[in-house]
């Protein structure tokens, strides 16, 4: 039996869009770059710090011989729309439109492993969907399912860059595919379009400035970067939307990624009013929900500040009483962003009853910051 052909056929059968194979040899070629990122402080808070675990598959599975890389397009055929009468809407990136891709892609890889185990008794397999320590983009590149764009995303010739990546480490010996090579040429549209200049150069990303990262981090977001986030509540598609390689590409066929509940947006006022239990019930299926309601609520507050509509002042004034210090601090920022005079008056009045020293200091910092603008 042609094992490679069998796996490729079953991959399509279980609903995967792209499949490729590479060796499980260490990724020594990226060791220097990972060290550079660590030294520059570019590592995200949810990244594995041990570089050895990031480059050597055998640290994860000693018997590893092959890595099966899979891609699943989330560029589904759907046009979102927004009610212009209700501006209090927060934008979700395509990656968070439907059901959490971790679950969708993992299940498809599980089905593929089940098929493999039917014909191979002694097979060992470990599945990873954005949960392993290895650099999944390097696996995708080596396995030939895509190449690095200058925006540091993997681009597939058929589906573009709107793809999720998962992989299976296995002891099976399967012929490897050819590694992909970048096809960006002289194009630099993504670099010029990045709102925060997180793309410092071609193939060089500072994640601490990337809006996609900012919408997920628990670290304090600098004022100047909040200004660039617009009304983005989770993720950022800017560098992908301007990319020529995403024009006229093949659409994804995974119906779970159609945003039936959100239409691609979150109702900001609703997020303010939902309890944690209600939030989980309605939005727990969504990729962005993993960070919890409060982080998304914080992002909604930033969106309100950037929308600068005075109708949001009452809502933000109420959120100054929130039990979360973070929510109170960001609400204070949004009030000042919308209207300095009104915000100043509200915050000075709030100082009389604010018990947190941290929040008080933040309010003083905000007043000084906006007065200097």
Automatic annotation (TrEMBL):
<dbReference type="Pfam" id="PF08331">
    <property type="entry name" value="QueG_DUF1730"/>
</dbReference>
<dbReference type="Pfam" id="PF13484">
    <property type="entry name" value="Fer4_16"/>
</dbReference>
<dbReference type="InterPro" id="IPR004453">
    <property type="entry name" value="QueG"/>
</dbReference>
<keyword id="KW-0671">Queuosine biosynthesis</keyword>
<dbReference type="InterPro" id="IPR013542">
    <property type="entry name" value="QueG_DUF1730"/>
</dbReference>
<keyword id="KW-0819">tRNA processing</keyword>
<keyword id="KW-0408">Iron</keyword>
<keyword id="KW-0004">4Fe-4S</keyword>
<dbReference type="GO" id="GO:0046872">
    <property type="term" value="F:metal ion binding"/>
</dbReference>
<dbReference type="InterPro" id="IPR016024">
    <property type="entry name" value="ARM-type_fold"/>
</dbReference>
<dbReference type="GO" id="GO:0008616">
    <property type="term" value="P:tRNA queuosine(34) biosynthetic process"/>
</dbReference>
<protein>
    <submittedName>
        <fullName>Epoxyqueuosine reductase</fullName>
    </submittedName>
</protein>
<dbReference type="InterPro" id="IPR011989">
    <property type="entry name" value="ARM-like"/>
</dbReference>
<keyword id="KW-0411">Iron-sulfur</keyword>
<keyword id="KW-0560">Oxidoreductase</keyword>
<keyword id="KW-0479">Metal-binding</keyword>
<keyword id="KW-0963">Cytoplasm</keyword>
<feature type="domain" description="4Fe-4S ferredoxin-type">
    <location>
        <begin position="172"/>
        <end position="204"/>
    </location>
</feature>
<dbReference type="Pfam" id="PF13646">
    <property type="entry name" value="HEAT_2"/>
</dbReference>
<dbReference type="GO" id="GO:0052693">
    <property type="term" value="F:epoxyqueuosine reductase activity"/>
</dbReference>
<dbReference type="InterPro" id="IPR017896">
    <property type="entry name" value="4Fe4S_Fe-S-bd"/>
</dbReference>
<dbReference type="InterPro" id="IPR017900">
    <property type="entry name" value="4Fe4S_Fe_S_CS"/>
</dbReference>
<dbReference type="GO" id="GO:0051539">
    <property type="term" value="F:4 iron, 4 sulfur cluster binding"/>
</dbReference>
